[in-house]
Design a protein that fits this description.
Radius of gyration: 13 Å
Number of helices: 0
Order of helices and strands: EEEEEEEEEE
Strand content: over 45%
Largest sheet: 6 strands, mixed
Structural class: mainly beta
Number of strands: 10
Shape: globular
Strand order of the largest sheet: 2-10-9-4-5-6
């Protein structure tokens, strides 16, 4: 039974920061490339960031480069997304996923508003 559980979302003002976490179980986490996605109301789900199994390689969508950092702690089976300088357009539900699969977490809401 594979489970991915996101946490850390909330309401934040523009320019603020949040750190999202994704706790994995039922999977050999250290062997899995991982993704963060987000979805705004009425829009398609968007790939935000990807990290290799060992954590050495990362990629980001252009709109978050320089502001977001994806990382992982394989000893804790946990994936992170540090989000700085947040903008209203970052608002949405954020999901973690095992790359190349349909294993998703339940999502955590991020709202950026004054």
């Amino acid at each position: 039974q594979v489970q991915l559980v996101e946490s850390g979302g909330g309401l934040v003002q523009p320019g603020g920061s949040l750190r999202l976490s994704c706790a994995a179980s039922g999977v050999v986490f250290r062997y899995s490339m991982m993704d963060w996605y987000r979805q705004a109301p009425g829009k398609e789900r968007e790939l935000v960031a990807t990290i290799s199994a060992g954590g050495a390689s990362t990629t980001y969508v252009d709109s978050v480069k320089g502001r977001f950092t994806i990382s992982r702690d394989n000893g804790k089976n946990t994936l992170y997304l540090q989000m700085n300088s947040l903008k209203p357009e970052d608002t949405g539900v954020y999901y973690c996923k095992i790359s190349g699969t349909t294993y998703w977490g339940q999502g955590t809401q991020v709202t950026v508003a004054s």
